Amino acid sequence: AGWFRRLLHKPKPSSVERSRAAGIEAASSPSSSSLAESAGYSPSTSLTRSVRPSATSTLDINASGSARWAKSYDVCICHSEVDLELVEELVSYLEGQPESFRCFLQLRDAVPGRAVVTELCDAVQNSHCWVMLITPGFLRDPWCKYQMHQALAEAPLANGRTIPVLKDLERKDYPRELRNLYYIYMALKENCFRQIRDTVVRYLQELCRSGTE
């Protein structure tokens, strides 16, 4: 009876003591975040892993002695004469990038007096990538088709070297010879130029890693 009477008269813990006990319990019990960390990830690290690294790093392609310098040009632009103004903007954009791309522009870089066939073939063979600006003018120009076939013969497996750019044409007008390649559709010029630049950088990075073409 005596111990039961003492139990009834035992003072209740104060609010301070209750909060202190709750803090000790919370610290000793594993939370969902601590369980996640023990499993090898946390909200912050999972977010970091979900962000893809940029594919346009210039770490290797400007290094001296890299495979990039085995050819005279990084990019050959294949286009019709009616699209020259747009092509000049593209060349100015690419050559003004931090990578300082070396572009072959027929009007500027072709050697006067040489045969057109020779110049077109040399431009393809001496360039790492070929941008095909496919417009209604391109489809009407036999020299554009000739250069396109030369590029496909040079790299039949493509592997990123041939970069088709479709402008002012419907999907059904896309050349059959290029149907196995994804193309860039030029809606916004700035976005298209950036996609071309990123594609060239990606190819040159792979080229520098492999050391061959």
Automatic annotation (TrEMBL):
PANTHER family: TIRAP, TOLL_INTERLEUKIN-1 RECEPTOR DOMAIN-CONTAINING ADAPTER PROTEIN. Transmembrane segments: none annotated. Residues 12-50 are annotated as: Disordered. GO terms for cellular component: cytoplasm; plasma membrane. Residues 71-207 form the TIR domain. The keyword Transmembrane does not apply. This is Toll/interleukin-1 receptor domain-containing adapter protein. Keywords: Receptor. The keyword Nucleotide-binding does not apply. GO terms for molecular function: Toll-like receptor 2 binding; Toll-like receptor 4 binding. Residues 21-44 have a biased composition (Low complexity). GO terms for biological process: positive regulation of canonical NF-kappaB signal transduction; positive regulation of chemokine (C-X-C motif) ligand 2 production; positive regulation of tumor necrosis factor production; toll-like receptor 4 signaling pathway. SMART domains: TIR. Pfam families: TIR_2.
